[in-house]
Structure formats: structure tokens, C-alpha cells
Amino acid sequence: MENTFKSKKVVSAVENSGEQQFDELTLHIDRVARVVKGGRRFRFRALVAVGDHKSKVGIGIAKGADVTAAVTKASEVAKKNLIKIPMYKDTIPHEVEAKVAGAKILLKPAAPGTGLIAGGVIRSILEIGGISNILSKSLGSSNKANTAYATISALSQLKTSKDWVKPIKTIGNKTNSVKVSK
Question: What pTM value is reported for the model?
Fold first, then answer.
């Protein structure tokens, strides 16, 4: 039995720098069973994304005896695995691709006004991370957990422009750059 729904909850978490608000989004809840001598024992597995809509996002998966316990555990796991997304004008600085198990994710920067072109779990994670203009494509598996982990893997591979753009070299008082004459 597969149950898919989304619920939002604002959670306050105290960090070293002070108090910070995180938005908690339940992406998927699944009932899992363990076979024992007397029959089956059912538990619930929750996939939760946590973010601040600015540039921090994390995901977590946990199991519990009931849905609330599973969601609470998963949100705690997500808060421990937060990553910072380097952003450039409400999008990502460069194209990135990631593969986790069977899920392959492709993320591309988009021009302002494009919006969030993504579906399912990818859209939820990017939305809660604060990215408003991006193009994405999910290739391969449609497993929600692997897709979520692949999205986080792709976002963690991003580098800021300072890391991949070479600075202009200066020689004495002159800069080594091209001047355009009129």
C-alpha cells in the first residue's frame, strides 16, 4: 500500500548562531512489513525534506511504529544532513548531474521568470531550498527516496562562481584583460 501526500509544518530549530525557522515537508509515507512467527508487523517509513526557503535544504528517511513517530524521526535526520546551496540570481550557478542507485538527475540554471520546471520530489526539494528558476529532468528510476538523494547529491556538487571562475591576473599596474575600442 503506497500513500503519497504532502504536509507542511514550520519547525524552529536552535543553532549556534541563534534561532532559525525551518519548513518541514513530508514527501512520502510508506507502510512496511516485517514477517514474524505470528504474522506481519507493520511500521511506517517517512521521507521528509527540511529547508529554510533561502539556501539550506536536507532530507531524511526514518521508520516508526506510527506515522507521527516516523515523520518526527525523519525530520531530525533531515536537520542533521542540511546542505547549503550556492545560488546565483535565484538559480544555480552551473549545470549539474548526479546518479544515486537507479535515479539520475539533471539540473540546469534558468533565466529569471522561467520558474521551477521540475516534478514530484525534485520540485518539492528545490522549492523548500529556495530556488525559484531552474530546469530539471529525472532520468532512470522514479523511486522517491533515490530521486531525493540524487537531487541532494546534485545540489551538493554545485560550486560558487569564486571556485570555478579564474580571477583576472594583474601584472604590475596593468590588468591582463581585453579592452574593446570604439
Answer: 0.78
Q: What would the grid cell of residue 152 be?
A: 541532494
Give residue 117's Cα distance to chain centre. 15
CA-to-CA separations, 167 to 131, 157, 170, 177, in angstroms, rounded: 27, 21, 9, 11
E-strand ranges in 65-95 read 83-84
List the chain pLDDT tens, one digit each, 182 residues: 445 455 555 544 444 444 578 889 999 999 999 999 999 999 999 999 999 988 899 999 999 999 999 999 999 999 999 999 988 888 888 899 999 999 999 999 999 999 999 988 999 999 999 898 999 999 988 899 999 999 999 999 988 877 766 666 666 665 555 555 55
Q: Which three cell numbers stand for residue 3?
A: 500513500
Burial code (b: 16+ CB inside 10 Å, e: under 16) for 48-77 equals bbbbbeeebbbbbbbebeeeeebbbbbbeb
Rounded distance, CA 37 to CA 49, Å? 36
All 3 cell numbers of residue 130? 529556495
